[in-house]
Design brief:
The chain is of the alpha/beta class and about 290 residues long. It contains nine helices and 14 strands. The chain has two domains: about 210 residues, P-loop containing nucleotide triphosphate hydrolases (Rossmann fold), CATH 3.40.50; about 50 residues, no CATH class. Helix 3 packs antiparallel against helix 4. It is elongated, with a radius of gyration of 22 Å. Bound molecules: adenosine-5'-triphosphate. Adenosine-5'-triphosphate (ATP) binds next to helix 1. One of its GO terms (molecular function) is ATP binding.
């Protein structure tokens, strides 16, 4: 199947920050979570996808076409929700809905009203007077109701309370089920990634560490408690070793094959938590820095 979004060798320099090279593919029907340290370049990458930031190198294909050949109204097929909306303060939710809905032929008024009701959004109150969490809820109602094929969300749940985050997960899952859709979401919330993502894109200091199938990460990253002390020889995918019996690996299939071949028995094995896996991939699995 042709990807809906494809980036190859994308690079962008902003002052002393270098983004890329980025190689990324988004298939219809998938949710991709963009994860990384602060300042990794997630927001810059999302803006590049939306043609708001011009890359110096590389190509972007959206729905099979390069940017300069984009079909008219391409932006009616992809919606982008930045971390904060500019220029909304003077208006209330109902007025914003009236402006925005005109641009999107598939605008779903029923969904908008459903989300207003679900999240208890006061749509007659001016945007500037809403709390950051309620603003995020309104932003989401204004984004999802566009009913575009691709939705790009930049940290949509950072300010939300716990029940709203839970409800949003359900809303996003339902939204994905409507027809072929793709969702790209930059987030620091492990829960979002755990519950929603099919793919996880890990970024660190402008570089893309990789695009991974979440299932593969959570099945391949494991720790083993060995019955006998291990030799010094390294185990396939070895990440860390504590003492001579506790080992973590990023390639559990190969590690288990190696253990069987070497007649090494393990007492117990455990899959690593997604949060730990991301920490390892971000290269922060060593000694913790002292807080002071
Ligand atoms: N308009 C700008 N002018 C100067 N530097 C910028 C601009 N926009 C982004 N940057 C720089 O680009 C880098 C990446 O920032 P970006 O906001 O994309 O990271 P991020 O991964 O989204 O971070 P966070 O997780 O903290 O939201 C940072 O070093 C930032 O200072």
């Amino acid at each position: 199947m042709q990807p809906w979004l494809e980036m190859k060798g994308l690079k962008k320099k902003i002052d002393d920050f270098q983004l890329g090279p980025i190689d990324l593919t988004v298939q219809p029907g998938t949710i991709t979570a963009l994860v990384g340290n602060n300042g990794a370049g997630k927001s810059t990458l999302l803006k590049t996808m939306m043609n708001l930031v011009k890359p110096e190198e590389g190509v972007i294909h959206l729905f099979g076409k390069e940017f300069d050949q984009y079909e008219d109204h391409w932006n009616q097929r992809i919606a982008y929700q930045p971390q904060s909306l500019i220029g909304c303060n003077a208006f209330n939710g109902k007025e914003l809905m009236t402006f925005i809905s005109k641009w999107y032929p598939k605008w779903d008024q029923n969904l908008f009203m459903h989300l207003v009701d679900l999240f208890d959004i006061p749509i007659m109150k001016r945007y500037v007077k809403l709390s950051p969490g309620v603003r995020q809820k309104l932003n989401l109602a204004l984004s999802l109701s566009r009913d575009t094929e691709v939705m790009v969300l930049d940290e949509p749940t950072a300010q939300m309370d716990i029940p709203a985050k839970q409800m949003l997960m359900d809303v996003l899952v339902e939204w994905m089920e409507r027809e072929d859709k793709a969702l790209i979401i930059a987030t620091h919330q492990v829960e979002d990634i755990r519950k929603l993502a099919d793919y996880v894109v890990i970024m660190k200091n402008g570089k893309m560490i990789g695009q991974f199938l979440k299932e593969e990460l959570t099945t391949q990253y494991k720790r083993y408690w060995m019955e006998q002390p291990l030799s010094f020889e390294s185990v396939p995918g070895e990440i860390t070793r504590k003492g001579d019996r506790l080992i973590t690996t990023s390639r559990s299939n190969e590690a288990e094959r190696y253990f069987l071949q070497e007649k090494l028995a393990w007492i117990e094995s455990e899959s690593m938590e997604l949060e730990e896996i991301i920490t390892v991939l971000l290269g922060d699995h060593g000694e913790r820095k002292r807080p002071f």
